[in-house]
Amino acid sequence: MNCTVTIIHTVGDIEMAYGQQTQRVIQAVRTKISSRALEPGEKLPSIRGFASSMNVSPSTVVEAYDRLAAEGIIFARKGSGFYVSPNTQPFTVSEIGPHLDREIDPFWVSRQSLDTGSEMLKPGCGWMPADWMPTGSLRKALRTLSKADDHLLCDYASTRGASNLRRLLARQFAAEGIEADPNQLLLTGSATQSLDLLCRFLLRPGDRVLISDPCYFNFQAILKAHQVEMISVPYTKTGVDCEQFEQAILEYKPRFYVSNSSLHNPTGVTLSPQAAHQILTIASRHDLILIEDDVFSEFMPAMTPRLTALGGFDRVIRLGSFSKTLSASVRCGYIATKPEWVEALLDLQVATNFGGPSPIATELIYTCMNDGSYRKHMETLRMRLAKARREVSANLAEIGIQSWLMPEGGFYLWSRLPEGVDSAELARAALQQNMVLAPGDVFSPTQSMGHFMRFNVSQMGDPMTYEILSDVIANL
Amino acid sequence: MNCTVTIIHTVGDIEMAYGQQTQRVIQAVRTKISSRALEPGEKLPSIRGFASSMNVSPSTVVEAYDRLAAEGIIFARKGSGFYVSPNTQPFTVSEIGPHLDREIDPFWVSRQSLDTGSEMLKPGCGWMPADWMPTGSLRKALRTLSKADDHLLCDYASTRGASNLRRLLARQFAAEGIEADPNQLLLTGSATQSLDLLCRFLLRPGDRVLISDPCYFNFQAILKAHQVEMISVPYTKTGVDCEQFEQAILEYKPRFYVSNSSLHNPTGVTLSPQAAHQILTIASRHDLILIEDDVFSEFMPAMTPRLTALGGFDRVIRLGSFSKTLSASVRCGYIATKPEWVEALLDLQVATNFGGPSPIATELIYTCMNDGSYRKHMETLRMRLAKARREVSANLAEIGIQSWLMPEGGFYLWSRLPEGVDSAELARAALQQNMVLAPGDVFSPTQSMGHFMRFNVSQMGDPMTYEILSDVIANL
Questions:
Q1: Domain range summary for chain B, segments of one domain joined by +
Q2: B87 — contact with chain A (CB < 8 Å)?
């Protein structure tokens, strides 16, 4: 690699030199580069277009572009616009600095939630507190595992991953009315890895993928890592807007649509059977692949027929994991698809992970799921979460934050902030009060959710949460 | 995705119709497509060029191309040659059939080793039998873990992975004379995942990467998955041929060179300090990044200064794992590089794995490595392996198979087969006798190692092994 590279500097050292607005634009470009939304050599957004999307004046964008050009990060091409310099490296040293410096992008919430200590309040994070998890079953499973066969403790996994867990999943599918052979199941390291593997298989740089607006922020991160174009369609209280969904398919010919059918992240919407049928019909009409990220369905009080249940594996790919319900420390996810696609995915999994996920991990999951106390735990948990959703929704309402919808399950409340409060500003200010929030725009491919915030009810038992929130809002 | 795709058929159904040679060429093209060495729409090698590289007559290639064109897998463009059909899917249904059908490619050994049962003899596989591993330490660590903190059992990892294990690795580096801050270490799911992550960061489709011939077959698999061009340089008993190494750098401007500095897979060569210094000097002269895959160094009787020790992290990236020495079931690897690159890799690891590797996995590794009995185990193991290398080498010599070199450690013997014996044919025949072998050409980017075989001495305690080998050779 050519080592005469341009390093993207920390925000701090230019903060003073430029106006807030200019600096916001500069950092936005840096983030696009570091997150690979912009590749070296790629053309930057037009000045007018970027100005309106950032909601600043064109002159501000001009100033920002000129400054970045002066730093050698981008360069101007006569009459054709600005481009990322070919030897600009896609990483930003600003990340070494205090995270406060970091532009709020899809990685913002992940890294804040994953790396900040337990002293922080985390209404923004994507999982439950450890003491809400089935630790009893896990400890029991670990003791059992300590007596397991040498092979289980030392050998690599088979390319598909442990057959006992695949058979168990196949039985669960059968209970849903989905006929799946264990060989149609591929175990992976996580739902994230499942989607990443599918992207490797289905996508090529420049392809288009359909997502919802809002959607799980890490979908955007994965798709950016695969250098594909994201097309988004508004998400309503009954699911994706079907008219615009079909429109987008016709116009952009995306390779697939990825979403959650039950307890959509962040909105909490669960598709009605009719809605699922409608999406499937449109997808069939235009031969579109549907990827159903199913990580939250176990939180539903009752099973509702989802895309896979209605469509089978002809065009629907189901992926899931055990991170939300069982443990995020035991990394394990899966992909369910047609046999020949599993076969194709195997080589990719061998190349990139050398076989299936940790046998120790899959055995722990298998043992827990066969443990009666785990099923009891889930029943109790659903009730506990229902209560928490009601209480947190009421507490938030008292400080002017309204739930957009009351989900049928899970731990998310997608909520509208008081008039005039920007969720990114609120999140940045809250971080200084040791509180991690999940601002709406990190979920929004169109950056149009600035008035929304995603709250995790299981992380909001401490009354302090609401005091800090209202203080911070008051002092914005 | 357009579903009117061409499926690549199993070899079986055309085997009869065509001559061995033609079928070999046809399957080679299929493999290139399924392994993504050839993308849909991409131009096939010229008839003359492919003929000489496959060592067949041009007319054989013509016949093969015509046949593939008839099947719609490729098409001819007047005066410009043959191209992969745009809707040919890069997977091969032949993989559903008996594995015997499968062309011997870099995935062949992986999948045979990972998926065949314990009834098989596996001189070809890349790990030791479970009863050679430190199972005592593992069981102890699991019992300890069953009493661990709830957070450890349930939470996601931090983006870099557990700090206690990173500190321990940093101390090991210090003992090697390498100054590394724990923040320069990124824990991953495996050495394979480490290299994959680095490829995502450093490579773009069409880039070139330098490897040795022979080299670890999965390097080729990963690089193919990233659609880059592999440039290979012959490997000698003292390491890579330095003259050709520098020549290749000048001619092809590769992004990096990846190899094992100690106990090179498959040859078992360990670089002398002089050789390491020479490679580093050439790399510095031409500003080349070196990736040092260090998974085998713990098997060395004494530590020898390797690339990272000599060059630091300026241009050397160290990666490793615990799969060979501790457990392949506990998935954990690492990357050591400069701080700003770790920062850049973090976002990629968040996007594709949602944070660092399983805290349960990293805690197991950490506990074992701090367990005195593990260190004792490693000392005993080194002696046991030394004995096994001598014995197996002698046993193989008796049936005319000569070790190319006696490695200073580890479990591989790179061996020359008797005159006229083709290792791929031998491997295919041995598989019918329930024996998995690692034929030379899966390690050879130039397919020029057909007279070599890689043996794993820890898997060859059963005298049957040698009987079967000599029988199969006799009946080829």
A1: 2-91, 95-131+375-475, 134-373
A2: no
